[in-house]
Amino acid sequence: QLDCCHCSYLAITPPPPHPPPSMADTLDMSGSSSPEQQRANRILIGSRAEGDSMGCVTDFLPLLGCSWFSLNPGLFALTAGGGGFLTGGGGSMGMAGVGEGVEGLRGESSSPGGVGGAGRRKRKRCGECVPCRRMGNCEECSACRNRKTGHQICKYRKCEQLKKKAAAGLEKMVFPSGAAFPWLQ
DNA sequence: CAAAACGTCTTC
DNA sequence: GAAGACGTTTTG
Ligand SMILES: [Zn+2]
Ligand SMILES: [Zn+2]
Q: CA-to-CA distance for A28 and A25, rounded, in angstroms?
């Protein structure tokens, strides 16, 4: 699990050599279990640990020029989907964000039995938004009340980012202006 | 293995 | 379409 998002997916070799942090000493954080403490630690250090977005596709994308398109179904789908095609009115297709592109559109590959492309990966709470920082379950919201069967985090603790539908982790590429590739214009 | 909680499917 | 239920994945 050392790959960042799709790096491993693209048969290239982007992972920039991570220089040995060498930030030991005085920082033990042995007993960090509660989400609150985790957050604290992350701030203390340099906020990264496993927070992704360090050497992601977005970074070396410009270096690949156009040939990149042919190798990345993921973004291709996203780009095209921006206006239509493969998006919306799919009928029954559980729109689960275009991440891996067209890998068995509907064909229950196998891994995580569910549906939605090819095994959506669970996202983790950002840990920075207000709800994330909240501590303790309110024990009063609906999520808390029916935790037995609901399996949902307290409503007041639900991460702001997770509330939004996962954008396949490429949302950084779609700029508000609508242009997906400013550098190509 | 158990607890926590995301993603989906189902139901209202 | 929101809320509930369930299956599933993560993590300790
Ligand atoms: Zn609650
Ligand atoms: Zn959050």
A: 7
CB A125 within 8 A of CB A159: yes
Nucleotide nearest to A153 (CA to C1'): B5
A181 CA to middle of ligand 2, Å? 28
ipTM for the complex?
0.95
Distance of A1 CA from C1 C1′ (whole Å): 37
pTM: 0.59
Strand B: which bases are under 7 Å from protein Cβ?
4-9
3-state secondary structure A96-157: CCCCCCCCCCCCCCCCCCCCCCCCCCCCCCCCCCHHHHCCCCCCCCHHHHCHHHHCCCCHHH
d(CA A173, CA A185): 15
A120 pLDDT higher than 50: yes
